[in-house]
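Study this pair:
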Amino acid sequence: MFRYVHTNIIAKDPDKLIAFYKEVFHCKSIGEKRDLKGQWLDRLTGLNNAHITGEHLLLPGYGDDHPTLEIFSYDAVRENVRGEVNRPGIAHIAFEVDDVETTLGLMIHAGGSQVGELVTAEYPNDTEAVFVYARDPEGNIIELQSWRQKKN
């Protein structure tokens, strides 16, 4: 069997980031909080005395068990260079929303920020999409998108 299970974000302040994703993107708690440590975790992570806490949040638009957004924190979180949209590796996560501008406003009000401009792009079959890149309160990049029939 193969199935997509979760995406993980390591947070400096997991409680704040969990609240952000619940408020803005309607992610839901499913009772999967974690407080992990032990030799098995040290071996898995390659870190000494690793300790992870956090929670799995059900992503909107899916069933009751997966996929989830896993927001965790380590006791010792390394500082790094802020991600950019053209950096190798996972660049962003995307949410389809009813109204990109409204959701962007909610993100900013909840501590996020805008990266680039809000744009509308034309696609085949008289379809257009509205896109914007933004950041959550810890700098992770999120793409907001909304699809609709082209306005004539």
Summary: Residues 14-25 form the longest helix (12 residues).
